[in-house]
Design brief:
The complex is a heterotrimer of chains A (290), B (343) and C (238). By secondary structure, chain A is mainly alpha-helical. Chain A contains twelve helices and four strands. The longest helix of chain A is centred in the N-terminal third of the chain and has 28 residues, at 2-29. Chain B has helices at residues 11-27, 33-59, 66-81, 84-89, 98-101, 107-129, 134-154, 174-193, 195-205, 209-212, 217-243, 253-266, 271-292, 308-323. The radius of gyration of chain B is 20 Å and the shape is globular. Chain C contains ten helices and ten strands. Chain C has helices at residues 42-50, 72-78, 95-102, 112-122, 124-128, 139-151, 169-184, 196-202, 220-224, 226-234; strands at residues 4-13, 16-26, 31-35, 57-62, 65-66, 80-83, 157-161, 188-192, 205-210, 213-218. Classes of the chains: A mainly alpha (290), B mainly alpha (343), C alpha/beta (238). Chains in contact: A-B, A-C. The A-B interface holds A 32, 77, 80-81, 84-88, 90-92, 94-96, 98-99, 102-103, 105-106, 215, 219, 222-223, 226, 230, 259-260, 262-263, 266-267, 269-270, 273-274, 277-278, 287-290 and B 1-2, 60-62, 128-129, 131-136, 138-140, 142-144, 146-147, 150-151, 153-154, 207, 253-254, 257, 260-261, 264, 305, 307-308, 310-311, 314-315, 317-318, 321-322, 325.
């Protein structure tokens, strides 16, 4: 029971990190970046392929690679699509996602690559007679740390203020001097950092990396940001968290029916959207306008 | 997804694509056995793209859910026609729900049923989904695809689960497929020029204007979504009879992406765009496939690395979007090109 | 040399030309009004100057540099700020945060605190509400916030798009008194207004735009003469 609750919280935290990455980019350019999945995937590949090095070095390298890919996406494609109908941008990101999956397949092969990353984080320990996996605790600690750091960045720094302002009204933000290119690049860079964090946590639990590794969590987080309220980062984080917790709980509660967990989750999403089309945290109809 | 869209009947707008469809089917489909098969698949995909065109192209609301209708159409037609012994014994099918085992329906009747089922499912789900707008609608249709995939992948009472369903009777006559595609094209054309098409396009341009004119966006979108779901169901049914076997994955993300990119590359606002897009993506894919296998294309032999085909197709699509997001046809209907007089 | 010199400016959206050849000049510490019927492109003109849209042709020389076609974020750094139509404050952010955003456009990163302190002095109502959400302020307070936010970058020229829009008459007087103070401090001001009377009597000169062009130039003396004002506003014979 305790383990189930921990699992639910850690999955929720993980999904809220992925959702934040999507939400940051959505905020500044109204782009639902489907290819965020491939940022998580490349981070996971990098972690596994550099597993022979000390964890710190491997981590730094992973963050660098992921941020580079994120910036490359923005620079080569999304920059040219700014201001285009969000539906077109979504489709373009869908296409980019396919491109990268195939590129990974050509680079790393279609079969999963694996290595043991951070072996000391595996296994479980006992506390008050209860057996608890180390990874779930680590996940929760890591997630809370990253969420707090993100919270500080968004709420307390000048970059965060600019991100919030640009999410609300980019045009006016620019009139006040917010540099559009830099801010959007920063948002992509940050989403890359978050993708690397997500990948680290995922890889500790499952080090079998295939070209589609990041797809599942991204689709679910995408659903999360929509139900949370896509216009705000808090909404995104909350939505991601809810999706993670619900999915984890469904897996526990449904027993043999757990194969249908996704269906129940998606149905829940539909219900939430019908009741609150703008998401749980929305005040108006931000989503409707998009 | 901008502009375009015709409101007045024009014989060349309608006949142009039909004539070209017939010519392509005749000359390309008749060239070799392998090209015949490719043409057959392309005709199924064209019907699917028309399904997307009538809803997405007119309303501007993105739908990822049409794969679900095609999937359901495919299963409907396949289960109704596959031989009893296959349904009874093969693979995981022995868990199939009893009432589904015995039915044996004529292939063409089953196609009609798959369209009806596709339309029904679209109508029921649409009565909820069409209350949403913009991105929420897009994501919600994605959820629909997710549910359909999840259910069919795991439920062995209604299908073979994650395995392939073999033994679906073939439709080998390309002209029958052509007839179905041309029929769909005509239906879609008349919907596009009717009040349904006009109103949908009006709501796309200005979501505020329609209610002011006393039009219920919900109602007109629901009608289009239902028709579009029926066409997608038909496309799925056709596909299953051309392939002879299929599995759930065939209608998931890649299918969704390929058909949507066909629509957008051609130009989502017209049936002519749907035809051009289906042709371009199919042709590019085929040429690249031949290059991958080191087969000469029109006498020229270029080899590309195995697996690079999908990369190039998707890249072409992105470049297309960057260059012209309203598609090759710019959303215009077919017109006979005016010849310039020399003197 | 004039601080701002707009020559034969042509601007619009897409293929539509809204402004077709407007010229005017503005000296340091002076004010100019822009009036004209609804939809003649007064806002388009300001957007083109501030970089919100790219001009189709013509030149905008500001402080000796051609700023036509530059990005808005670069133009504000050169010292030209726009208070957009409808104020466009960030209603979800606090008053303090709205003001802090104004700092983004400062050329000189030093003196930020002084600049904010100065705005508090000029608009005392903002410091009383500094931790409130900007959306909770009254219309007049929001207008003051929008002006203060634009002034924090210490612009040489302040462009205002319909500052009186939606405000009660007493509040309008209040806002224009503040504007007078701002001009007194050496900032040049361009005011686009529907209320021709108000701005004609306020600004040193006022240009009337109709059919995308400057039709007349008025002085405060014309404000008293409502007949000449009307004639230039709507064109002769109407």
């Amino acid at each position: 029971m305790v383990q189930s609750i921990l699992d639910a919280i850690s999955l929720g935290g993980l999904y809220s990190l992925a959702a934040l990455g999507l939400g940051l980019v959505f905020g500044v350019m109204r782009l639902v970046n489907f290819a965020h999945a491939e940022l998580i995937t490349i981070a996971a590949y990098t972690l596994v392929l550099t597993a022979q090095f000390p964890l710190a070095i491997s981590l730094i390298f992973t963050v660098l690679v992921t941020v580079f890919v994120a910036l490359l996406m923005e620079f080569s494609i999304y920059r040219r699509l700014r201001g285009v109908n969000p539906a077109i941008m979504l489709i373009a990101s869908f296409g980019l996602s396919t491109v990268l999956q195939r590129v990974y397949e050509l680079m790393f092969g279609a079969l999963p690559r694996s290595a043991v990353v951070a072996p000391f984080l595996r296994g479980d320990f006992k506390i008050a007679g209860l057996s608890i996996t180390i990874s779930s605790v680590i996940t929760i600690v890591l997630t809370i740390t990253i969420l707090l750091a993100m919270g500080y960045l968004v709420e307390k720094t000048s970059l965060g203020l600019q991100l919030r302002a640009a999410s609300a009204d980019f045009k006016t933000a620019r009139l006040l001097g917010v540099r559009s290119n830099r801010l959007i690049s920063a948002a992509f860079g940050l989403s890359g950092v978050l993708a690397a964090c997500v990948a680290l946590i995922l890889v500790i639990q499952n080090p079998q990396i295939s070209p589609y590794y990041g797809l599942n969590i991204t689709i679910l987080s995408l659903v999360g940001i929509v139900i949370g309220g896509i216009a705000s980062l808090r909404g995104a984080a909350l939505g991601g968290f809810i999706v993670g917790v619900v999915l984890s709980s469904l897996n526990t509660l449904l027993g043999n029916g757990r194969v249908y967990a996704y269906s129940w989750l998606f149905i829940l999403v539909l219900v939430i959207l019908l009741v609150r089309p703008g998401g749980l945290l929305s005040k108006g109809t931000e989503l409707e306008r998009v | 997804m901008k502009h375009g869209g015709v409101t007045k009947f024009s014989i060349q707008n309608l006949l142009g694509p039909i004539v070209i469809l017939i010519l392509l089917t005749h000359f390309v489909g008749g060239a070799s056995t392998s090209l015949q098969l490719i043409t057959q698949f392309a005709l199924c995909l064209f019907v699917m793209v028309l399904a997307l065109q009538v809803f997405v192209g007119n309303s501007g609301v993105l739908s990822f859910g049409h794969g679900a209708f095609a999937l359901i159409g495919s299963y409907t037609s396949a289960i109704l026609t596959a031989p009893v012994n296959i349904k009874d014994n093969a693979l995981a099918m022995n868990q199939l729900w009893e009432p589904l085992v015995s039915p044996q329906v004529n292939v063409y009747v089953s196609l009609v049923i798959s369209a009806v089922v596709g339309g029904l499912v679209a109508g029921i789900t649409g009565s909820l989904l069409m209350r949403l707008n913009g991105l929420a609608a897009g994501i919600a249709t994605f959820a629909l695809l997710g549910v359909a995939y999840n259910v069919f992948f795991n439920n062995k009472k209604i299908g073979p689960g994650s395995q392939a369903l073999p033994g679906v009777p073939w439709i080998t006559n390309t002209w029958i497929l052509l007839l179905l595609a041309a029929f769909t094209l005509i239906v879609v054309y008349f919907i596009n020029i009717s009040w349904i098409g006009r109103t949908l396009r009006a709501t796309r341009e200005d979501a505020m204007a329609a209610p002011a004119l006393g039009i219920s966006i919900f109602k007109v979108r629901l009608i289009a979504f239902t028709i579009s779901g029926a066409i997608a169901g038909l496309a799925g049914g056709m596909y299953s009879h051309v392939a002879g076997t299929f599995q759930v994955q065939d209608y998931y993300l890649e299918f969704t992406f390929v058909t949507l990119s066909m629509l957008i590359v051609g130009g989502s606002a017209s049936i002519w765009g749907a035809l051009v897009g289906t042709f371009i993506i199919t042709a590019v894919g085929q040429v690249l496939l031949m290059m991958e296998q080191d087969i000469p294309v029109f006498g020229i032999q270029v080899q590309i690395p195995l697996g690079s085909r999908a990369v190039i197709i998707a890249l072409t699509f992105i470049v297309m979007l960057l260059w012209r997001s309203s598609g090759v046809t710019n959303g215009k209907e077919f017109r006979i090109p005016k010849l310039k007089r020399i003197s | 040399m004039a601080l701002l010199e707009v020559t034969n400016l042509v601007a619009g959206y897409g293929k539509v030309e809204v402004i077709s050849g407007v010229s005017f000049t503005l000296e340091q510490g002076k004010s100019i009004g822009i009036v004209g019927p609804n939809g003649v492109g007064k806002s388009t003109l300001l957007q083109a100057i501030a970089g919100g849209i790219a001009p189709k042709s013509g030149s905008i020389i500001f402080d000796g540099k051609n700023i036509g076609g530059k990005k808005p974020e670069d133009i504000v750094r050169l010292g030209l700020s726009l208070v957009p139509e409808g104020r466009q404050i960030f209603s979800g952010l606090s008053v303090k945060e709205n003001l802090a955003l104004g700092l983004t456009g400062r050329r000189n990163k030093k003196g930020a605190n002084e600049a904010i302190a100065k705005m508090r002095e000029l608009f005392p109502v903002l410091s009383t509400h500094e931790n409130h959400q900007a959306g909770m302020l009254s219309g007049g307070q929001q207008q003051q916030l929008a002006i203060a936010r634009a002034l924090i970058s210490e612009p040489k020229v302040l462009l205002l798009d319909e500052p009186s829009l939606g405000l009660a008459p007493t509040v309008i007087t209040d806002v224009f008194e503040r504007l007078q103070e701002i001009i007194g401090m050496g900032t040049a001001v361009v005011i686009v207004e529907q209320r021709a009377n108000l701005v004609t009597s306020f600004a040193e000169k006022t240009i009337v735009i109709r059919d995308g062009r400057v039709q007349a130039t008025l002085t405060p003396a014309d404000a008293a003469n409502s007949e000449s004002l009307q004639r230039s506003y709507f064109g002769a014979g109407e």
